[in-house]
Write a structure and sequence with these properties.
Radius of gyration: 17 Å
Number of domains: 1
Mean pLDDT: 94
Distance between the termini: 33 Å
Low-confidence stretches: none
CATH superfamily: Spore Coat Polysaccharide Biosynthesis Protein SpsA, Chain A
Number of helices: 9
Shape: globular
Number of strands: 7
Strand order of the largest sheet: 3-2-1-4-6-5-7
Order of helices and strands: EHEHEHEHEHHEHHEH
Helix content: 25-40%
Structural class: alpha/beta
CATH topology: Spore Coat Polysaccharide Biosynthesis Protein SpsA, Chain A
Largest sheet: 7 strands, mixed
């Protein structure tokens, strides 16, 4: 159980791909006593990420081939549930999100104020740009978030952050294994949370773009945007009882 909150077993999951140069820094910045176990899922890295993680004492699972960011998360959550986690927090091992903010994401769940907590880079106006986010990504983030809020009836400041924490109950209630294996997985989870009326809370986080941090390029971002539109359309059809999607059941 967590040293800070012994009633909860807190498991950090690290969806990794070629993170050998940033993994140690990420682990060093996780505040002591807040996480009981760290699970790293390696999506067929070619740089020795899995070997380093094992040497650092982490529980490691390796995909035999590259399956994608969403598929990595599926394995992360399945293995965290298998480890009897009460709270699961996702920390990207590329050090783009600041692990020192782990307590900020965990406390709302520990207090019972939320079932899911997202770190938002957009809560402080303009800070994402100051942190190095490309202007086109910043504008797209704002546009897509406004559209998603309009369709889903939510008031989130960002849908696209990968720094997230979930209660065990939340992960067990949603059909995350039916989601995409790609980046739109994160948006699909938000739609599932909305359909289950689960409470989401956001906390502000800093933005850190640097050489070596993972970031999808412009072309992949366009594809990502298309799949967000597609999922919003599927949500509308599902709510109108016109199409019954397994992931939204």
């Amino acid at each position: 159980m967590s040293q800070k909150y012994p009633k909860f077993k807190i498991v950090a999951v690290l969806p990794a791909y070629n993170a050998v140069h940033t993994l140690q820094r990420t682990l060093n910045d996780i505040p002591e006593g807040w996480v009981d176990e760290v699970i790293l899922v390696d999506d067929a890295s070619a740089d020795g990420t899995a070997e380093l993680a094992r040497n650092l004492g982490l529980k490691v699972f390796v995909h035999s081939k590259n399956l994608g960011y969403g598929a990595n998360q599926k394995t992360c959550y399945q293995e965290a549930l298998g480890a009897n986690a009460d709270i699961i927090i996702m920390i990207h091992p590329d050090h783009q999100y600041d692990p020192r903010l782990v307590p900020d994401l965990l406390l709302p769940i520990i207090r019972g104020d939320a079932e899911a907590v997202f770190g938002s880079r957009m809560m402080r106006p303009g800070e994402a740009l100051r942190g190095g986010m490309p202007w086109w990504k910043y504008v797209a983030n704002i546009f897509l978030t406004k559209l998603e809020n309009l369709v889903l009836g939510l008031r989130l400041t960002e849908y696209h952050s990968g720094f997230r924490a979930y209660s065990k109950n939340t992960i067990q209630m949603i059909n995350f294994t039916a989601n995409s294996n790609d980046f739109v997985f994160d948006t699909e989870i938000i739609i599932q949370l909305k359909l289950k009326n689960l409470k989401i809370q956001e906390v502000p986080i800093s933005t850190r773009y640097f050489k070596g941090a993972s970031m999808i390029g412009f072309k992949r971002s366009l594809i990502y945007g298309f799949f967000i539109f597609r999922n919003l359309g599927q949500y509308i059809l599902f709510k109108l009882n016109l199409v019954n999607y397994d992931k939204f059941k």
